[in-house]
Amino acid sequence: MAWNPPQRPGWLARLNAHGLAVGGPENLVSLNPAELIQTAMASTGGLDDFGATDLSDWQTWFEVLARSLDTESQLHAVGRLLARHDLLRCLRNRLQLAALWKTRPAVLETELLPPSFVVGTARSGTSILSELLALDPDARTPALWEMLHPVESLQDEALRAPGHSETALMEDLTPEYATMHENSGDLPNECLYMMMNTFISDIWGGSHFTPSYDKAMLRADHRPVYAYHKKILQTLQHRGAERCSRWGLKAPSHLALLEELFSVYPNAWVIRIHRDPLKSLPSTISLMGTLKRMRCADVDVTRNAERQSEGTAYMFEQEIAKRSDGRVPNDRFIDVHYHELMRDPLATVQSIYDRTGWRLQDEVAGKIEAYVRDRPRGTHGTHQYSLASMGFDHDRERERFRFYCEHFDVPEET
Questions:
Q1: Which of 152, 219, 226, 321 could staple 264 via S-S, CB 3.0–4.6 A?
Q2: Do the Cβ atoms of 239 and 153 come closer than 8 Å?
């Protein structure tokens, strides 16, 4: 069996033809770094301070990324439009945040509510667990539209609808995506949407082919990225946190950056969810291939599958080592299992509350039960994937991840 890429809708194929009709999509949509910077400044009324003191080499990272997107990703016309949109939004966010922090310095003097992070590999249940935890009004959990437009969200909700549309468009580009992930600007989502404003984030490589950028990322210092992340949280805390006692956050990518996370958030809770890698890995690769196909002309999910498996195993090895030798505080981790979450969501949430000392109100427990009841699995269809379709050998992969499953007592899924 081979991976069967989702078919592009007719409207998308026709729109992409416009790029071919003018000699290539690069002639239709520019990703020139200098022009993007000028456009961002002009579109924000002439703001010119990108907050360089927050990450002194942000422009270098931006230019490396823009060049990689421009020359390596094989973006079709719509893909270039989406990449330009994302780059411009991040540039505008930097300009607007720097201006806000300059005119309202008290924003960054705010004592941040204690954070908790749902962490695990992609496709391991991080989304549903974070959504269940977000049902508690004591938790300030940012919606995706707020993370996309942090400054505007402080003033009004004018960009709430556009923020949702930015997200829902993914199902228009690839209807099958709805079987993999629910898309809404009003739902919680990954911290990556705040961190991408630094232009140091694996969200870019997750949606595009960016080999030179990915290689450069190996030497990136992510501590300033988490410092910037904290400043955005301080900003959003000025909106809708009056009754809250903590932040509720999530992103699979935190798993590879635990030391960096704790360097900025030393008292954070990390709610670590575990799932059989032989299920989560092929599902992740299929998802990433689908995301890339929304933007890139040519997608081969097997191209980097072996490297992704090796990288995941290495990440697990590093996590175990760092939690064992004290490089990260093991007592701040709460380990939960995907199969237990699926079997009894409320009991899993209760176990988290028992560990943290949070109080699970009866009203919140009722919300969790209703949420699970009203959103049965498979509502939008079934995500089809397999190890074999990614070119993996089952026995070899089982042996590769045996140490992880044994260490965290992760059961095999059939």
A1: 226
A2: yes
Greater pLDDT, 141 or 52: 141
Six-digit token pair at 404? Answer: 């992880």
Left, alpha or beta for 199 (phi > 0: left; psi -120 to 50: alpha)?
left
CB 168 within 8 A of CB 183: yes
Which among 157, 150, 163, 161 has a CA at the least distance from the CA of 238?
Answer: 150
Is 70 exceeded by the pLDDT of residue 297?
A: yes
Instruction: Identify the pLDDT of residue 287.
Output: 87
Q: At what angle do helices 33-43 and 58-72 cross, to 10 degrees?
A: 120
Which among 92, 100, 70 has a CA at the least distance from the CA of 162? 92
pLDDT tens readout for residues 149-199? 999 766 677 788 888 888 788 888 887 777 766 778 788 999 999 999 999
Which residues are registered as beta bridge partners of 336? 273
Look at phi and psi of residue 207 and say left if phi exceeds 0, alpha if psi is from -120 to 50, else beta.
alpha
State which amino acid sits at residue 43.
S
Cα dihedral 14, 15, 16, 21 in deg (nearest 10): 80
Secondary structure element (H or E) that encloses residue 115, with its range: strand 115-119
pLDDT at 256 over 60: yes
Q: Which domains are seen in the chain, by residue range?
A: 10-408 (3.40.50.300)
Do 276 and 413 touch, CB atoms closer than 8 A? yes
The helix/strand/coil state of 219 is coil
At residue 283 the predicted structure's pLDDT band, cuts being 50, 70 and 90, is confident
Threshold 0.90, pTM exceeds? yes
pLDDT at 161: 82
- Pairing mode of beta strands 269-274, 115-119: parallel
Closest CA to 393 of 285, 278, 288, 311: 278
DSSP 224: H
Eight-state DSSP code of residue 2 = -
